[in-house]
Every structure is written in C-alpha cells, then in structure tokens.
Amino acid sequence: MAPTSKADRKAAADTAAWLFNVVTSVGIIMVNKALMATYGFSFATTLTGLHFATTTVMTAALRWFGYIQPSHLPLPELMKFAVFANLSIVGMNVSLMWNSVGFYQIAKLCIIPVSCLLEVMFDKIRYSRDTKLSILVVLIGVAVCTVTDVSLNARGLIAAAIAVWSTALQQYYVHSLQRKYSLSSFSLLGHTAPVQAASLLIFGPFLDFWLTNQRVDKFDYNVTSVFFILLSCIIAIGTNLSQFICIGRFTAVSFQVLGHMKTILVLVLGFFLFGRAGMNIHVVVGMILAVVGMIWYGNASSKPGGKERRSYSLPTDRSQRHGLASESSHLDEK
C-alpha cells in the first residue's frame, strides 16, 4: 500500500507543478499583452529584468525566514547559466523583431529537437519510437495552428539560431545543476535571479532602445500601467519558480513538449479576450493534434524504455545523493 500512496503523492505533486506553471505562464502572457498592446509598454527586456528583481526579493525573504537553506553553486557554473539565460531572452526578442511571426514560431518549435540532442549527447538518453513519434505529432500540431507567413533573412536566421540553442542550453542546465549540486528549485533560483536581474536591468534599457527606438525612462507612466507592471512582476515570481520546479522534476524536453499546452491556451484566450479573428478549422485541427501528441508523449515516455539512460556513472555515495535529491524534491513540493 505504501508504494501506491507514494506514487499517488508524486503524481499529485507533478500535476500541481504543471498546473502552477501553466496558470502563471498563461497569466503573465495575458497581462503582458494588455500592458504592451493597450498601454504601449514595449520594453520587454527591461520588464524581464524587473521580473527577476522581484524574484530576487522573494528568494531573499524566504532565505531570511529560513525556508531556503544555504547552498553552493560554483561561480563558473552560475555565470555560464546566466550567459545562456540572457542570450535566450535577448535572442528571442531580436528574433521576433527580425523574423516573420511564422519563422519565429518555427524557431521556437526547434527548441524541442535541440533539447533532445542535448540529452542524447550529455545524458546518454535513449528515446523509444513512440516517444519520437509523439514529439513529431506535437511539433506538427503546434506548427499547423501557429505558423502562418514564413519569410527568411540572414540576420534573422542567426538571431533565431542563437535564441534556440541558448534557450535549450539554459533549460538543460536548470535540470543539470539541480541534479549535480542537489539544489532545490528555490535554491537555484536564489543563485541565478540576482545575476540575471542585475545584468538585464543594466543592459535592458539600451537593448530596448535599439529594438524600439524608445526610451524606458520617457514612457508615460500612469496608475494603470504601473499596476499592470507590478502585476506582471508578481506573476513572474510564480512563472520563474514553476519553470525551475517543472524542469527539475522532469526534463527540459518534457517541459518543452507539454509546455506547448500553454501555446494552445494562449491562442484560445486570445480569440476570446482580444477579439482576434482566425479561429478556423485548420487551427482547431492543429490544436487537437498537438493535444493528442502531448497525451501520447506522456504515456510513451513514462513506459519502460520510453525514455531512459543508456549508461551513466553512479555517485560515490549513492544513499547520500539519494537523500539529498529527496530533500530537494520535498522542498519543491512544499
């Protein structure tokens, strides 16, 4: 009876983690759409810096009250992660500016196969045929309902390549660093958020001026726009934390595959809340296909042989590492 209850608790925690990520991610996208489309606050990189600054305050408070235990992350690992994470943010913004929306969506879909390649190369992961086919179905479904016009240029291709690889590497290292240094999601976020906040708030205004030809300090701030900025920052705490929890509990590939459920929800909410036309039959078919692929992936990857390591080295003190990993998982569940 005990193993069953333990499996049930893990399934419930996994489901809660995904729901937490989906709700906060969709919520912040809706708030940012209103902030940028309605009030003209188009400074995406600076806004992301504010998100990480707010997250830094949250993690500092939790550490002060004893909810986050002291931990260590080597400075080279921290700086490497920060470079990948900031390149991901900047690369995605520049890719959206220089490419058509259709090619931008294709580039985002390419993160999944690149993440698979990283796991195969570094973690010696082997995927079953059903797992590979389910990923392909998700990619086709999301492409059908999101990719429209596609145009290509040299600088846009370079920006997209940087965005794809840096995003895949950043998400891979979230899982890798938690496992390697036995860090909880709160602890890892406490290490990385201050570095990202400082770098993005320093360079973000200059990058936003280059992208939009507008200065963030000249924006017409009013009560409503400031309220939406603060609301975006508050929701971003949950978004950042839930991303680390999900990738830590699963993998970057699973996070990307099942994360496209957020794309589907954003499309549906956009049609209803922002009055967009275009909910036609091929969009609906693409959504259904993507959802079927996600369900298939969940079943295929959880079966024996669906997704497993070919070879890996065991830690010297297996019981000690297992205890630390269990403690990390327990902190995430709390």
UniProtKB/TrEMBL annotation:
Residues 302-334 are annotated as: Disordered. It is a multi-pass membrane protein. Pfam families: TPT (PF03151). GO terms for cellular component: membrane. It is found in: Membrane. Coiled coil: none annotated. Keywords: Membrane, Transmembrane, Transmembrane helix. Its main location: membrane. The chain crosses the membrane at residues 12-31, 43-66, 78-96, 133-150, 156-174, 186-206, 226-245, 257-275, 281-300. Residues 24-297 form the Sugar phosphate transporter domain. InterPro entries: Sugar_P_trans_dom (IPR004853), TPT_transporter (IPR050186). This is Sugar phosphate transporter domain-containing protein. It comes from Asparagus officinalis.
